[in-house]
Amino acid sequence: MQRLSSYRDFDWVLLGFVMLLSLISVLEIKSATLHTKFHGFETKQIGFLAVGLLLMFIISLIDYHRLIDIVPWAYGIGIVSLIAVRLVGTKVLGARRWIKLPGGIHFQPSEWIKLILIVAVARYFWNLAGKELTWGDIGKAFALVCVPFLMVLKQPDLGTSLTYLPVLVCGLFLGGIRFKQAAIIVLSLAILVGGAWKAGKLLKPYQKARLTSFIDPDSDPRGSGYQIRQSLIAVGSGGIWGKGANKGTQTQGDFLPIPYTDFIFAAFCEEHGFVGALGVLLLYFLILMRLIQNAQTASDLPGTFIIMGVVAVIVFQIAVNVGMVVGLMPVTGIPLPLMSYGGSSILFTFLALGIIMNIRMRRFVN
Amino acid sequence: MELATHPEQPDMGANGKAEKIAPGKLSAAQYLIALVLVILVAGLWRLQVVSADNFRALAEANRIRKIPVLAPRGKLFDREGRLLVDNYPSVSCYLLREQVRDLNADLPLIAQGLHIPVEQIQSTLRRFQAAPKYEPIPLKQDITPDEQAFIEAHRNELPELETLDEQRRLYPRDGFAAHLIGYVGEISEDDLNKSKYAFYQPGDVVGKSGVEATYDALLRGVDGSRDVIVNSHGKEIGHLGQTLAKPGQDLKLTIDLDIQMAAEKAMEGKTGAMVAMDPHTGEILAMVSRPSFDPNEFSVRLSKSYWNEIINNPDHPLMNKAIQAQLAPGSTFKIIMSYAGLEENAAQTMHVQCSGGASFYGHFFACDKRHGMVDIEHAIPWSCDTFYYTLANKLGIDTIAKYATDLGFSQRTGVDLPDEVTGTMPSTVWKLKNFHEKWYAGEVISVGIGQGAVAVTPIQLARAIGGIASGGALRRPHLVFPDEVPGDELEAVHETFPGSGDKTVQLSTGNWQLITDAMAETTISGTAAAVHMEGIDFAGKTGTAQVVSHSAGMTSLGTGKERANAWFVGMAPRRNPDIVVAVLWEHGGWGAGSAPVAAQVINAFVTKQRRLANNLRIAAETPKPATTASVGSETGNTVASTPKPAANE
């Protein structure tokens, strides 16, 4: 490979924003677990971040075209590992999502498949570049994403499976889907989903309850509406300036559910107020704009596709997670990238960043 | 998989157009992202800026729980500061329905841990179904340490269980002084609507009867509260502050424990009432009503069986007969007759030949003996009916009624106890008002011996006769020293329990001496000679009141529920007595049967008085040999026959 790339071209600004957000995350995890048995999760999170950074630097050295070359194999392995989860996975809270590996590591294939899908979709549309998308092409793209989507949905893990969809949507959008095609797809999906909802086959009862309580949080304040209600109270009571670090009554009093993962933004909003929340969203905005800028300057089509795939996933997760926290979206269990506690989420983000760094460093190649 | 068909390395370089995505699409993505973030910011604005106050209130309500700190109720002491009613700490268990996820699933565990049947919890829940959800439901009172530990250990599984420290009343056992003390209980819905209870809350414990009820405002104190911070499991994780409870005021009753004990003992096995009072002040020294009840049973949840036992007892154990039994006074009324006759100057010169009765208005009215020639000085100790028939006939009903009303009959005395009754004093007006009938002159004859429509309470009788013996000074009977009670509260008590109160009636010295001497003679040679106490200036009057009305005087006592009521009013010393005792023994037969009760109480009183005087004397180191023979059971040293009150009087 050409050694024209150098760390001068590494996106230090992007990394700066990312590390700033990670720092905020660590502090909030510390606050949110202060009085719980999860006390000390912030150090674990720092560990995850360290590993993530290391992996990012390693992967940024690998030409992303090599990844595109091997992605069919990775995709195959991903599908096999999902089957393995189904067969030998560890059951946690009624869902099989994890494979126990020797050494006490829990491996969650669904998180890695997200990354594989981004690269696979990039490769697929790269092959179709310059062509008008036929219905066949669109169908194949759907198949590419929906096979793992349905398998993860079955685990059941609605949250993670949903994050696959923006990859597909982004791919189709950038790949040149025509408005008419898009309209037909949206319409038929709406009919399909509506029919399945009616038939009551689509969602698990708890998922249905979440949707109902999303529409009316006070319908069952102690049941499934509880989480939304407590989250709204946490965010709202934070006010403009917040209650101060480690002083959120909803967070510290254990009223807010899982305040270190899915509801970390609610905890942050309670303790740091509207001003703090605005700051975090601004950081996200800067990160995303920086990513899109990198997508624009990518030297070739797959580079753009990969970066935009990552952007799509992050935007989707922010929209759904923050939307949930402020009561605009139902509870789905999607973590907030770079904020929520959790190794898999961090590793995904930093691996994706690694690939993006490589794309950026190679922007003047060719 | 489609991807598996490895495509040849794309030759897009040749197709320059395809190597780049149209910049418009990426700009569109930027706008889309900006839009998403703006929507999220709007969502945050809505919660954190627009509705912040509302959510702040919700967050506070979430974490802060107001736990009431109940004020300990004031204790009750006797006149010498001996403890009568105490409190003991107790823990109650409440159910918070707001905390509950699935109550039905928890029921078996709760039932097991608190040792109450599931059905009982369910019926309690049904009872509170209509109550607001935030209102705690009392599950069990006075729980054991084991049950407390159970609740503590199951905080996470059963966050709906809450304990509350309370103070419970500890009353004397076996119904000792139960009627005058009363008992406490949860305020009833009816009471809550009364203006007296305007500031009370549902679930408050209030005095239900006796002194507990009258002085509830003083005894109850002011509850405080503690603001604690709880987590989502209801566990206390901190506290904010507290308003201290203001303990209720202790009250010193006018009751003398020694006299009360003697009275309780004397009334044992009898049905009826007795009241002992200091006529100088109106202080009640002892008050007993029989049968009694155990107020301790009322302070914790009353058991159904005990309630049935109480409510089905034909002798009405909850009734304080000292102030609520209104019965014909029988011959004790002759003191009132004598007073009226003497003050009217009609009795002094009256001499009546008693040949076992006399005829009036065509009816024969019997006397229990042939007394021969009787004058007023003998009519009292002998209790000659014929004399009083004649006197009544001479005075007429309205004159009798005037003097009787002056002495407080047919009115409440104003004693500081709830539900006192007025009794009845007939008169022409009274009859017209109540029966729309004219008074027949013949009806006055039986009034002369305290029969007919005359009805009095023991406390009325004690106050009236005590008043006569005190030269006409009548006092408002009371159980709590007025100086123990703040002025406005005392006023409120007097307003709540109006009555004839303190007053002075006309009584000439000669008449006063005559009546009191005659009453003293009663216990020497008269109807109560059997209870004569050597060395004690003991005066009294018996009364045997027919339960079933016979127009023809006292010829038989009757049996069972028709047996006559035995009355006795006694005092010592005869003039300006330090103690007056009225005894009512329902269906006790001859009034002389009640005399020993009064005698025992008065004996206990005098004995104590002398002992205290003696102690004082010994303390003053002026030893003198005793003058008279021993009387009391406790001490051989007695002083003069008309002792002056020595200690705390």
From TrEMBL, chain A:
InterPro entries: Cell_cycle_FtsW-rel_CS, FtsW/RodA, RodA/MrdB
A single GO molecular function term of this UniProt record: lipid-linked peptidoglycan transporter activity
Broad class of enzyme this protein falls into: transferase
Membrane topology field: Multi-pass membrane protein
Annotated GO biological process: cell division; cell wall organization; peptidoglycan biosynthetic process; regulation of cell shape
Protein's cellular compartments: Cell membrane; Membrane
Broad class of where this protein is predominantly found: membrane
Catalyzed reactions: [GlcNAc-(1->4)-Mur2Ac(oyl-L-Ala-gamma-D-Glu-L-Lys-D-Ala-D-Ala)](n)-di-trans,octa-cis-undecaprenyl diphosphate + beta-D-GlcNAc-(1->4)-Mur2Ac(oyl-L-Ala-gamma-D-Glu-L-Lys-D-Ala-D-Ala)-di-trans,octa-cis-undecaprenyl diphosphate = [GlcNAc-(1->4)-Mur2Ac(oyl-L-Ala-gamma-D-Glu-L-Lys-D-Ala-D-Ala)](n+1)-di-trans,octa-cis-undecaprenyl diphosphate + di-trans,octa-cis-undecaprenyl diphosphate + H(+)
EC number in record: 2.4.99.28
Associated pathway: Cell wall biogenesis; peptidoglycan biosynthesis
Recorded family membership: Belongs to the SEDS family. MrdB/RodA subfamily.
Function (record text): Peptidoglycan polymerase that is essential for cell wall elongation.
Name the UniProt record assigns to this protein: Peptidoglycan glycosyltransferase RodA
Organism: Edaphobacter aggregans
Lineage, uppermost ranks: Bacteria, Pseudomonadati, Acidobacteriota, Terriglobia, Terriglobales
